[in-house]
Amino acid sequence: MKNELWQESKDYLGILFGLTLYAIGFTAFILPYQITTGGLSGVAAIIFYATGFRVQYTYFMVNVVLLIAAIKVLGFRFCIKTIFGIVALTFELGFFQEILADENGQLPKILGDQTFMACVLGGCTEGIGLAIVFLSNGSTGGTDIIASIINKYRDITLGRVMMFCDIAIVSSSYLVFHETQKIVFGFCVLIISMVSLDYYMNSMRQSVQFLIISNKYADIAEAITHQLDRGVTVLHGEGWYSKEPRQVLVVLAKRRESVEIFRLIKRIDSNAFVSQSNVVGVYGEGFDHIKVK
What we know:
The protein has 293 residues and is of the alpha+beta class. Helix content is 63%, strand content 11%. It starts with a helix and ends in a 13-residue tail after the last strand.
């Protein structure tokens, strides 16, 4: 019970921190340069550019409507952390607009006329923020809810639905500005944020797998177990050419531990046959905890 409570607390803190990064990137680099991003925040930004209606209000009101539909279709349990994310991001969008605004109430262009640099910094900050939210098993609502509802009734992946929504949202900025340049900048932010999100999520979950074949397999396994505190699995195989039995060691470790493992193997048996491969998403004792919504 205590472990579950601590894990839930870490998830909510992670969601809050990720949303803070997202709100800073969106408010400091996206809104002042009138760039349109994907998601419901992009829809709110378009309405803001066209009417001046505050972003956080549009974001919150549309999400309330989507949440009502989501609760009926997907159930309340699915929406608990989504509700937390929506409320937190609504507050933070308003908060950072207040503290970053100048004396005239306008958001300053802190990078001057460097619109593309604003795209890069805004996209990176948004992407990393969303990655932290997703790694904490959270959601920001918006197109996530739409994609989940459609996915329940149609054989379309969540990623594809969200991609179509984001393309439509960014393209619709032409109706406000009548400039293709704004659309290009919007797609730049979209691509940069997606790449940043994927890179951060994969780097946080990156592990390595070793397959080790050696006549001194027992010594290597003992050393890895006691010196590096990593588990070792022995697979009983057979060399096809020699027809002799071979013991294959399987080791899963953090990426940063790979150098130590190589040094240890070389010290015991410099002629050992070693294969290393990257793996993403190792769950269990000593690695990540399994998280499901």
